[in-house]
């Protein structure tokens, strides 16, 4: 099972230079998470929003939505999981479908085996080539709670021979969502430490109760450590 992630370019205000999934904010309060995900995937990497426009023999199957995660920018992020396939494994999307990138938002797009994110090492022997560890992790404080920060160094194909730059670093909330998706998909636990819960619904509920996460956020109204501490006690 493979998945796609994107690397927003420096011209994009959202997570410039970071690896992330296609996504964005709702245009209206009525727009569903899967509709937002489909619209953003079409805008950023050319995956048709309408099922009828997906080139045969491919089809997109909406599998589920994960609980919401809390971003550092105080936004709730709802991951939508879908499977792009032919139904009979006659062709692979990463080999047969050519993405159409939005240059103002996307610098690159790449794929990696989902099952790899359940491992603490790259058993394909590419660590020596990149000079980077496949997995790194540490515990930190996240909105007044203890949280695990993950980082995966995904090797990429290159012709310049510069091994020091031949990786994509997947970390933060993106890495956590990938890990949680892999845990659910394969019903397996990784060999490294991780947070057993999926998403941040409890933290989000407390922040809403404390008056944070309003529909309209004032510029510069970043949440302070005191705000997080107050919400954690609710």
Description:
This protein has 234 residues and is α+β, with helices and mostly antiparallel strands. It has six helices and nine strands, in the order E-H-E-E-E-E-H-E-H-E-E-E-H-H-H. It has helices at residues 33-45, 93-96, 127-130, 172-186, 201-209, 225-232, and strands at residues 2-7, 59-65, 69-70, 76-77, 80-85, 108-113, 135-142, 145-155, 167-171. The strands form four sheets. A three-stranded antiparallel beta sheet has the order 7-8-9. A two-stranded antiparallel ribbon has the order 1-6. The protein has a two-stranded antiparallel sheet with strand order 2-5. Strand 3 (69-70) and strand 4 form a beta hairpin. The chain is globular and about 55 Å long.
Annotate the secondary structure layout:
Blueprint: E1 2-7, H1 33-45, E2 59-65, E3 69-70, E4 76-77, E5 80-85, H2 93-96, E6 108-113, H3 127-130, E7 135-142, E8 145-155, E9 167-171, H4 172-186, H5 201-209, H6 225-232
Antiparallel strand pairs: 1-6, 2-5, 3-4, 7-8, 8-9
């Amino acid at each position: 099972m493979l998945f796609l992630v994107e690397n927003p370019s420096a011209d994009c205000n959202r997570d410039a230079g970071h690896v992330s999934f296609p996504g964005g904010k709702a245009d209206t309060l009525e727009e569903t998470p899967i509709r937002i995900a489909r619209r953003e995937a079409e805008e950023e990497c050319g995956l048709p929003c309408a099922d009828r426009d997906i080139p045969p023999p491919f089809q997109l199957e909406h599998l589920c939505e994960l609980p919401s995660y809390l971003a550092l920018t105080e936004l709730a992020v709802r991951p939508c999981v879908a499977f792009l396939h032919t139904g009979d494994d006659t062709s692979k999307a990463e080999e047969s479908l050519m993405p159409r990138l939005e240059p103002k938002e996307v610098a690159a797009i790449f794929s990696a085996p989902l099952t790899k994110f359940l491992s603490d090492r790259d058993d394909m022997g590419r660590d020596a080539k990149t000079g980077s560890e496949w997995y790194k992790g540490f515990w930190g404080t996240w909105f007044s709670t203890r949280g695990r920060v993950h980082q995966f160094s995904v090797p990429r194909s290159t012709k310049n021979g510069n091994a020091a730059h031949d990786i994509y670093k997947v970390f933060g909330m993106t890495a956590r969502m990938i890990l949680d998706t892999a845990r659910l998909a394969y019903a397996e636990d990784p060999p490294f430490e991780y947070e057993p819960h999926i998403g941040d619904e409890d933290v989000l509920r407390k922040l809403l109760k404390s008056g944070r996460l309003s529909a309209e956020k004032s510029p510069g109204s970043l949440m302070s450590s005191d705000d997080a501490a107050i919400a954690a006690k609710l």
